[in-house]
Write a structure and sequence with these properties.
single chain; 260 residues; alpha/beta; Metallo-beta-lactamase, Chain A; seven-stranded mixed sheet; 5 helices
Length: 260
C-alpha cells in the first residue's frame, strides 16, 4: 500500500493495484461560498493532477472535500464514489459515473478494493457526512478515513484496522464549538481499532489560511502529544508524518484476526 498526502484532506491512495484520489483540492484557492474575507486557503503552487486515477472518493459536499475548481480539471469520465451531498456537486459538474453511498452501503472497485461508507462528520443538525472503510481484497489489509475526528461506534466491529487517516488536533470556534476534533479522538480511535499506522490529516502542509475565521479559531494538540499518548497506552501504532507530495510505502503485516 502506498499513500501520498497532497495537503489538507487530499490523498492519493494506492491499494489493490488501484489509484484512488480522495477529497482532492489541488488547484486554485479554497473558499467557502465565495466568501473570501471569511476564510481562504492558498498554496504557493498548484499540485500536479495525479495521472491514471481509477476512482475519485469524496467524503463531504463542502468545498474542502469536494473542491469545484479541482474537479473541473479532472476527467469527467473518472468514476466517483461520494456522500449524498458530494454526489450532487459532481453530478452538477458533469461527471458521468457517480455512485452515492449512504451509511452502511458498499462499493466494489474492480474486485480489488471494497469501500464502505460509515457515519462521519455532522454538518449542521440534519446531515452526517461519510467516513470510509477500505479493504484490499487480496491481502485483506484495511484503511479507515474520517477527516474531522468523528468516529462511529460501529467501527469497533471492524477492528483491527491496519491504516487510519484522521486529524490529531482540535480546531474550535468560540461559542460555535469544534470544527475538527482530534486531540482526544485520535487516541480513542487508536485504542478502538489498534492500527498498525496512523497518519494525520486536515492540518499543516504547504498551504496558508487567512480570513476572519482563522483569527478566532483555537487550535490544540499535536503529533508529538499523540505519540506520547500512544506510548503511554502501550500501543505499537506507528504515527507517520509524510511531507506533501511524498509517496510513502506502508510496511504492513497481515494479521491473523479476520476482518468483517
Amino acid at each position: 500500500m502506498y499513500l501520498t498526502w497532497l495537503d489538507s484532506n487530499s490523498w492519493l491512495i494506492e491499494m489493490g493495484g488501484k489509484r484512488i484520489l480522495l477529497d482532492p483540492w489541488l488547484v486554485g484557492p479554497l473558499v467557502f461560498g465565495n466568501i473570501n474575507w471569511l476564510f481562504k486557503g492558498s498554496r504557493p503552487q498548484e499540485r500536479p493532477i495525479p495521472d491514471r486515477i481509477d476512482l475519485i472518493l469524496l467524503s463531504q459536499g463542502l468545498e474542502d472535500h469536494t473542491h469545484p475548481p479541482t474537479l473541473k480539471q479532472l476527467d469527467r469520465s473518472i468514476p466517483v464514489v461520494a456522500s449524498p451531498s458530494a454526489a450532487k456537486v459532481v453530478r452538477e459538474l458533469g461527471y458521468h459515473q457517480v455512485t452515492t453511498l449512504a451509511h452502511g452501503e458498499s462499493f466494489n472497485l474492480d474486485n480489488q478494493v471494497t469501500i464502505q461508507a460509515l457515519p462521519g462528520s455532522p454538518i449542521g443538525p440534519f446531515v452526517t457526512e461519510n467516513a470510509y472503510f477500505l479493504k484490499e481484497l487480496a491481502s485483506e489489509l484495511t484503511l479507515y478515513y474520517e477527516p474531522h475526528g468523528y468516529h462511529a461506534p460501529v467501527l469497533k466491529e471492524m477492528a483491527p484496522v491496519d491504516v487510519v487517516i484522521t486529524p490529531v488536533i482540535d480546531m474550535k470556534v468560540p461559542v460555535l464549538g469544534p470544527i475538527i476534533q482530534g486531540k482526544n479522538s485520535a487516541l480513542e480511535l487508536a485504542e478502538m481499532v489498534q492500527p498498525q499506522v496512523m497518519l494525520p490529516t486536515a492540518a499543516g502542509g504547504d498551504v496558508t489560511f487567512e480570513g476572519v475565521l482563522m483569527a478566532i479559531i483555537q487550535t490544540m494538540g499535536s503529533t508529538d502529544t499523540l505519540r506520547t499518548q500512544l506510548a503511554a497506552s502501550k500501543l505499537s501504532t506507528q504515527l507517520l508524518e509524510p511531507k506533501p507530495g511524498d509517496r510513502v510505502e506502508l510496511k504492513l503485516q497481515r494479521r491473523a484476526i479476520a476482518k468483517s
